[in-house]
Amino acid sequence: MAKAESYRALSDDELRAQCQDLRKEIFKMENALSSKKEDVQPSSITEKRRNVARILTILRERE
């Protein structure tokens, strides 16, 4: 999921769960990148951060 339109179709609880999952993935990817255990694309971390920002923006708009 990358488009804001697809996130807008989800409920608040689903968005919060998605955000939490993305943050966990970012954490794992950053650890793997720093320890050089896995081949991680830094651009994928940036993309996930932007998706978290999209989700938080949508949640804030709904308040």
In CATH terms, what is the fold-level topology? Answer: Helix Hairpins
Spell the H/E element sequence: HHH
Largest sheet entry: none
Level-2 CATH architecture = Orthogonal Bundle
Poorly predicted ranges: none
DSSP strand count: 0
Average pLDDT for all residues: 91
Discrete helix count = 3
Could you give the distance between the termini? 22 Å
Instruction: Give the amount of beta strand, in percent.
Output: under 5%
Oligomer: single chain
Determine Rg (CA atoms, Å). 13 Å
Number of structural units classed as domains: 1
Structural class label: mainly alpha
CATH class: Mainly Alpha
The shape is: elongated
Approximately how much helix is present in the residues?
Answer: over 70%
Please describe the topology of this protein:
Layout: H1 4-8, H2 12-35, H3 42-62
Helix pairs in contact: 2-3
Give an overview in words.
The protein has 63 residues and is mostly helical. It has helices at residues 4-8, 12-35, 42-62. The chain has one domain (4-62): Helix Hairpins. Helix 2 (12-35) packs antiparallel against helix 3 (42-62). The longest helix is centred in the middle third of the chain and has 24 residues, at 12-35. 5% of the residues are buried.
Key structural traits:
63 residues; mainly alpha; 3 helices; Helix Hairpins
What is this structure, in a nutshell?
The chain has 63 residues and is mainly alpha-helical. The chain has one domain (4-62): Orthogonal Bundle (Helix Hairpins), CATH 1.10.287. It is built from three helices and no strands.
